[in-house]
Amino acid sequence: MSDLIKIAVDAMGGDGSPKKVIDGIIHNHKSNHENFFQIFGNKSEIIKYLDKKIDKNFYEIIHTENIVKSTDSPLEAAKRGKNTSMWLSIESVKKKENDIVISAGNTGALLVIAKLNLKMIENIDKPALSALWPNKKGMSVVLDLGANIECSSKNLIDFSIMGASLYKSLYPLENPNVALLNIGTEELKGNETIKETLQILNERKQNNFNFSGYIEGNELMNGEVNVIVSDGFTGNVALKTAEGTANFITDELKQALSGNILGKISSLLNISNLKRFKKRLDPRLYNGAIFIGLDAPVVKSHGGTDFIGFSNSLDVCNRIVKGNLIDKIKDNI
Questions:
Q1: Distance in angstroms between the alpha carbons of the first and the last residue of the chain
Q2: CA 58 to CA 168: how far, in whole Å?
Q3: Distance CA 142, CA 236 (A)
Q4: Distance CA 140, CA 224 (A)
Q5: pLDDT tens readout for residues 125-167
Q6: Torsion region of 242: left, alpha or beta (phi above 0 gives left; psi -120 to 50 gives alpha)
Q7: Structural domains of the chain, with CATH
Q8: Torsion of CA 48, 298, 316, 170, to 10 degrees
């Protein structure tokens, strides 16, 4: 079993945990026997959902009764102690006992505890929170999504390299195409930081990605660019806007197709197209934000997702490790 990918799992974070987390592990294991799960949390709670559903060669439970609460501030979470499930799972990656760590718990706490335990990759000043977004041609990596409100041109260049490395790790057969999120595509648009970043990236030769200049918010989903870079403030606003728009469209369509007899007949006639549309906008498919820039990968599953979403974020963990993300960043930075 030494060739398995070792995933440290904080079983106590997020809504409906640990049942949701364990159900996600079980669901993931049904289709993928490449992962070993070191599960951190209350053993008596965990075992009643896990017992006999997975071969014991594929998991280990590390018992702790202390947890980081969803209401904790990052400082409170750090002070809560080094024997919480979140702290111990991250610490296991620091000790090289696991390849990657995942939690559905408190995002701010996860970022702070990760930074307290793990070192930065050499020559990177700030880590970034990244995620996968759907586009017309496949998927995009978007970063930063809120870890850094203010960024220098050096930070944005680092994010470009890290985002391209992440994309290549997840999609090894495709080439990263990077752009900076801005208020226009003309070179004169934007603040001084983003204009300086554009100039530097235009002038220097990039080994691991193609640079496409600026991209506007209305072009994020067209698929021409697959790595989108911004500061954390702009990126977070873009993320929440995209999520809200997707939910609005889905809810309005559902209401239109169930509100009267004509709508119900129309939905029956188009059931296969509607299922495909629903699947395309299903946020569970894109679950799993990645905290990159540290010397080990940290994955944040959405706290409100279900076991299917958590299982999908375990797939992301698997692909990150197999794609040698950290080595790719170190080689390219």
A1: 33
A2: 28
A3: 10
A4: 10
A5: 999 999 998 888 888 999 999 888 999 999 999 999 999 999 9
A6: alpha
A7: 1-124+293-326 (3.40.718.10), 126-286 (3.40.718.10)
A8: -170
